[in-house]
Each structure stands twice: as structure tokens, then as C-alpha cells.
């Protein structure tokens, strides 16, 4: 139980309203409301006054029952092996809440950019089908291709604008990805509380998003079964892109928000050990080499439709390469 919950329980046990408690402490009702919601933490003199009013010890108010150890325990040592020490960033409650709120607001915009990228080729596919369809409403292939490419470029441009504009709002927090953090007292409990409140939504969006991606082939399969040579397969293919785009939108949005909690709590993919590995020269050299191979192969063969396979292969090989490098380093 965090400090805010304890203040709420003690206030209700005493039969006081927020206004009455605020009058006792000489503060505003808004201040008490922020304490109870975890948006802010009372000053030390107010904590002393609270302990007197509720006849409890300061230890009871300050000790977080969610953590078995003392809240002011020594900071966790940064597991750096060899090399310069990485600075530890201290995060206050206000900074943590600001970061979480910023990520929640930006997540939908970045997910929308991914949504537009997935939908970008649909106009070209549809107009290409019209140009090859015999009937009263047909387009010439050059016109269909030109309009389709313009629509695709417009959607991709809009997506890039979303990535750049809203991604820039997260630039001040880039250190959370690769540098250790130390949370001020009470911040850990508040972040875990917000994470627990979002967990059900996160799981639901994961299930819906993954299900949509799996079922996205259904329209195409049905369309091919109905009319293999007409416009039906084209419509089915477009519906597949739309369903995938919606599913990926949900997945990207919820994973960005869930990742914000992991960055602050240093769990999942953002533990200190993982950050140390990501900061190692191996990571820079490996992905730089992969990029060079991809660009060199693509420009040499001009087979951009096939060279993308470099990236999933490189992602699969990265873990064993990193493990082998770690074993060699220890030896």
C-alpha cells in the first residue's frame, strides 16, 4: 500500500472529508486530493503532522508494504562490467507521471502512423485492379499507377510526419531506454499501481490485435473462392490490409504504453543488465554491419522486394551472437 492509499484509509477511518483534513493541515483540498491519488507527495512537515493527527508513526506512513525492504535502501548497483560508469538518472513523482501521460498521448499517434503505412498500398492495388478489369469503368494502367503511387506517397508522408512530430516529444526521455534510473520514494508504488490498472486493457488489446492479424487472411480466401479472376480477390486483399492495419494499430499502441511502465521499473526488456548489453560496442557494430549488408545487397541487385529478408534473419541471429560474444568476453 502506497502513502496515498494510507492517507485515504486513515482519513476515512477518522470520518473526515478531504476539506476537513486539509483544514487540519493548513493546505488546500486539492493538495490532499493529489496526495491520495499519488500525483504528489506531502512535505516532511506535513507527514509529521499526519502522523500526529492519525496517531500513527512516520514509519507506518513512509514504509511501503508493497516492498519488503526499507524504502530508502541503498540504490541498486549498476551491473557494469568493464568500461566507464553509466550515470544514474533520478526520477521524481512529477517526472514519472509526466512521462507516463506523455507516452499515453503519443502512443495513439505513432500507432496511427504505422496504420497509414500498412494501408498505403491499398489504393494502388485497387486502381491496378480497375485498370485490368474489363467493363464500363476502367482506368488506363499509367493513370491507375500514377494515382495509386501518389496516394501511397501521401499516406507514407503523413505517417512520417506523425513519427517525427510526436516522436520528438519522447526525445527528452531517450535515456530511459539505455541508462539506469533510480526512482524517488513512492514513485515505484505509484508506477506499479498505474501498471496494474492498465494490465487488463493491455491484455485485451493484445488478444484483439493478434486475433485480427490471424483472421486477416479470411477475406482474401473467401474472395478467391467466390471469384478467382474478377475484382473479388482485389477487394479481399484490401480488406486483409485493413484488418491487419487495425490489429497492428492496437498492438503498437498498447505495447508503447506498457513499455513506458517497464522503462521506469526497469523490468522486461529494460533491466539494467539488458541496458548494459544494448550499450555495448557489439550492438552498434552488429546492426551497423546488418545495415551495410542490406543496402549493399539492395543497390547491387535492385531487388528491394526480396532484400528485406535481411532484417528478420538478423533479428533471429542477434540473440545467439550476443550470447557467444558474452561467453568469449568472460573467458
Put the structure in a nutshell.
The chain has 331 residues and is mostly helical. It has three domains: 60 residues, 434 Repressor (Amino-terminal Domain); 178 residues, no CATH class; 52 residues, no CATH class.
Q: What do you see in this structure?
A:
The protein has a two-stranded parallel ribbon. The protein is built from 16 helices and two strands. It has 331 residues and is mainly alpha-helical. It has helices at residues 3-14, 18-25, 29-37, 44-54, 58-62, 93-119, 122-132, 141-167, 175-178, 187-215, 217-226, 232-265, 272-278, 281-301, 304-307, 310-330, and strands spanning 89-91, 181-183. The protein folds into three domains: 3-62, 434 Repressor (Amino-terminal Domain) (Orthogonal Bundle); 93-270, no CATH class; 280-331, no CATH class. The longest helix is centred in the last third of the chain and has 34 residues, at 232-265.
Identify the strand order in the major beta sheet.
Answer: 1-2
Query: Which residues sit in consecutive blocks of at least 5 with pLDDT less than 50?
Result: 66-75, 78-84
- Percent of residues in helices comes to over 70%
Taking the sheet with the most strands, its summary is: 2 strands, parallel
The total count of helices amounts to 16
The mean pLDDT is 80
**From the structure provided, what is the oligomeric state, counting identical versus distinct chains?**
single chain
> Could you state the order of secondary-structure elements as H and E?
HHHHHEHHHHEHHHHHHH
Number of domains: 3
Per DSSP E runs of 2 or more residues, the count of β-strands stands at 2
The termini sit apart by 45 Å
Tell me the β content.
Answer: under 5%
The helix/strand class is mainly alpha
Shape: elongated
Output the radius of gyration.
27 Å
Pfam families: HTH_3
Organism: Candidatus Enterenecus faecium
Protein name: Helix-turn-helix transcriptional regulator
GO molecular function, one term: DNA binding
